[in-house]
Amino acid sequence: MFYRVGIAVVGGLVLLAGILMIPYPGPGWLVVFAGLAILATEFAWAHRLLGHARARYDAWTDWLARQHWSVKLLVLAGTGAIVLVTLWLLGTVGWVAGWFGIRWTWLQSPFG
């Protein structure tokens, strides 16, 4: 029982970290699949979800590869917008701007 709980906690944390990393450059999807693989060692639902997620990911990348360059650029711009908004909300944009002496109030996070 303790082993299953440990797998659930570790796999869940890895999965959550991967989900948070998806829009950013780096191994977001790899970490998601790793978290699901950890969970799949003990839970049948995670095994099914891992297979489904792999199939959806492959379908998405295949679809995107067939698209016109303008669609690819739009997806890239959307991803970049998500990254910038998240960094702004976390206060990173205002913090980095401060390194260059830029103290515009609209660059500061609404949460800090």
UniProtKB/TrEMBL annotation:
TM ranges: 5-22, 28-46, 73-102
Keywords of the record: Membrane, Transmembrane, Transmembrane helix
InterPro entries in UniProt: CHP02611, Uncharacterised_PGPGW_TM
Protein name (record): TIGR02611 family protein
UniProt organism field: Pseudonocardia eucalypti
